[in-house]
Design a protein that fits this description.
The protein has 65 residues and is mainly α. It has helices spanning 2-18, 26-43, 49-54. It has one domain (2-54). The chain is built from three helices and no strands.
């Protein structure tokens, strides 16, 4: 997320003082942030299924009654 903020600051500065960008400058930060969230999610280890079942977390909350 911090890298997305840095990208927005650089793109905004470039848009304001150098040359206008073809799209709104915040799109660059959004795309970089989403990319980094996906990469970090794929790079980290998955939680064990037992832990997800015990805490009722995962893709959605399930009621096991």
């Amino acid at each position: 997320m911090s890298l997305g903020l840095v990208a927005v600051i650089i793109a905004g500065d470039s848009h304001q003082f150098a040359t206008p960008l073809p799209v709104h400058f915040s799109i660059f930060g959004f795309v970089i942030s989403v990319f980094l969230v996906i990469v970090s999610s794929l790079a980290t280890k998955r939680f064990p299924e037992k832990l997800l079942d015990e805490t009722l977390t995962g893709l959605y909350i399930r009621d096991k009654r």
